[in-house]
Amino acid sequence: MPEGVNSTPYRPTQYSNHVGMRAGPKQADCDEEIVAYVEDAYIANVKSDLELSHAGLWDAIVASDDVKAAHGGFRGIAVDNEKRHYFPATVLLNEISLAYATNTNPSTSPDDRVVLYLSPSDHLLTGDYLCIRSKPDFFATVATRNELEAWLAAARVKLTTALSQDNKGPLQAPDSPPLQAWPQGIGAGEGKPRDSKSAGQFKYYMAALKRYRPDLDTVHGFQINRGQVYLSTMSPGGLVTSEKEDRSVLSAWIAHIALLYQADSKRDTRFSLPTPTPHFTRYTATLSGKSLSLAPIYVSSRCPGRCTWAAFEVPNPADDPTSYAGKPSTGFLKTSYQDASKKKKETQYLDIAHEGTWLPGLVRHWPVSQVRRVIPETGQEYIKREKEIIHLASLGDPLSRCTSALHLLKVIYDAIETHFRLYRDRRVLHRDLSWFNILCNPWHDPKTTPEGGKSVQEGVPCIEQILTGDVAKEPCALLVDLDHSAEYKCGERIATGARVRTGTPMFMACELSSSSRDAALDYPRSSIVHLESQLEAVENLGDVFRRAFPDDDGTFMKQFRLVLEAEEQRRKTNGKAFTNPKTPHLPRHDVESVFWVLVWCFARACPVGAPFEDARNGEFSNWAHNMLKHTIGNESARWTLLGSAQILKTILHPDLASFSELLEDIAAYLIVPWDLYHDIVDDDHVHIAIRRLLLAQIHALNNNPTLDVKLNTLQPRVINLRSHTDYVSQPSRDYVSPWASAATGPSSLASTMAVQTGSEASAAPDLTKSVHHGSGASAGRSKRSAPDDDASSSTSNPKKKTTSKKKRNAKAQDGPDAQSTPYSKLSAAARCENLWDSWLWFAIGRRGKAAADELESRPSAA
Question: Where is the composition biased (Basic residues) (predicted)?
Fold first, then answer.
């Protein structure tokens, strides 16, 4: 989750360079979550490996006069003076680095790669698109030999002079070259004035460094605790540390530098990092002979672990700032370290799913040659990992960009249809359907269309085809992320390919989320009698029904009536039924996940013009809190909702309360103990039932637009709990959108960027009349406009106003639609902004007061 929500991946967070960085709660969490394994022979093994690869190198470094001098100066610093030893330690590390480079290649060019250590303890690192906000005491980067020698030449003189003076203040290093950027880091170090028992801050830096470097399998660091030092190596397979050594032991410092050179020599050269700009970081990746320009985005997976790194592809020339802020993004790239024991990786499942023809509604991909290299595990907490690179040719928006209830229902319908085709026709079961893996507004690279050489599977009816009869229409949903998929054979009730149950906890099927047989859930004595007429009535839609279910032969309703009879008998006799925690992951479980996604969307959704905030400790806020805190094995809240869905009406916004009946009907179907009736129904019965219920609602809204409700795509309802302030006290997000200038063209980019970095605020153009997706800027402060784009409203005395649903919807229809910019035209920065906005739906951050007041105070339509 974003760690600095008042920033964007393209805007450096504005913090003082002179304010100390205390170890925060996230760093403390790292100490508990990241288990370190101590290797007794850590340093000895490094020395042995180095002697095998470069005989005599270790001894040559020890014998270096410059290394000896730096070592002596470092040993003379008092162990309890933390800041005073930064500079001497940095000099020692760089002297070892120069000796290493000189002895491994005496003919080194001035421009060759060497390790350069800096001590940025007095200012923040740049290139911080993950918003980590940190000041490590030591930071290693790759520089040229010429830069290393120049730094050392100045440092030797300055250090000698400083040490000769009788004072105890900090020793200041010479001016550093402009290389201190997180994405260029290769090592990090932390110094403590006393014997600290916590390594959370140090582990935090190590994990951050790995997340910034998609080209490195391992990163290395060290921590000084008073008079001792220990080394660490972090990889996706875990964290290994050395035994603590006296800081005066030279072998520890040599081993650390040797590891940095080894890591750099083994880097994935398919990735490179051009010099970062102050505004955004971009990478270049060369895959299958094609060069890609990439703008990285925030990623959530941690290190050790999958270490997922993701980026939007930007059009060339990448050095043109408008390529990321004003030109359409052209793809998406993801790297991650997958479980090496998995039978198939995501790319292989995508190959299967798209064999012969593209499957409509599923993300498309380009072939990428994988470099197989297994990262060993360090202990039982971790597993062997293998790097995988995926280059996607499809893009989509988070569900928060659905502009109306009808739009949302159409997306959900197509998502279920695509999931059905994926497991039935292509034999791949998704197993992790969630908010994050169901997207709206899909776009596919034109080169993947039939004109590009590969056709799209025919006969897959998406909702627009069903409603209009136009077979040229495409799905409005996009399923992504087959990370946890498995091969599936219909009728066998066994999915193979993954060794553990999968899913996002708050969206997992309740049956799978039960922790054990002892924790089995008791099915309530609910009735599905009322569903018979509703499921059958859909057949009266004529051509619409026939286009949706061309293969229907009456079998579904026959099977449903058999189950209905059995359920009514169980209800009358008070027959008990329980969930089966040992049941395999089945297609119906994925459909239940889609149901929880739909409930979450409707519950968090705020109609256009309606107040954002729930009543203090209201029904919605309490329910949303329980969903966010849900963990596997703790099913009371969700199970109660599934069995008593009538309470949904109290959770939804009043303007959306009418949709609670649809959710109640879906819940009633899902709460049946289907494990008892698996011999009666087909595998696809849940898909058919839910699609029938959705189709009836969609058809009604489509024929009567006044029943639809326009949704605020910029702001969800705010969770308001007295006892959980984490939902209401996050930092503000008053900023100039990094892509706001796209609306005014490249000429305004420079002045807009000046606002973002806090300089030349007076030069900011007034963008309130050229809003791009509801974002603009004026005088250096964000004005997140409502979808109607009423730029004339005043924010001096904001007042909360509520209007009738009819007026709000009329207003929304009169103004420009929130999706007025075609989704195929969105830039990488705009798509990244959409992703950050979607975090608001999970109570991560909030809009700044000025932006929220501005949205809240817009007048209703006359």
Answer: 798-810
